[in-house]
Amino acid sequence: MPVPILTYHLVTDNFDLGFARTSLEQFNKQMAWLHENGYQTLTVAGYLKMLQKQQLASTNHKYIVLTFDDAYASIDAAAEIMEKYAFAGTCFAIGDYIGRQHSWDYQLFVCKHENASAACLIGLLYMGWDIGSHSYR
Question: For 80-87, what is the mean pLDDT?
């Protein structure tokens, strides 16, 4: 059984010139729709574990994997919304930017965003999330 994977970047109501932003209202509507339509989340590790054990073919559950690239600090707001629906995700943090402003983006110093702190990422782990490495700069 194929499992859809949704990838998010910046989940915030703060202005952003980029194309990878989802507003909190949009995100909440998406999570509500998934919940109302019977989806349960799997982390990437959970998904891989179920694939390895060949458990996906024998289940009637509707699963989805939610991932977040770059570990922006706004992930805490996304996590709060997801917690309402008992959802967990996988966050891919950039090792050298944990708790720092990012500086690699195409926006050429117009708008910078904070990356999640180590405390925020640890909090996600306690909420059942996975934390992976996006890269290291």
Answer: 97
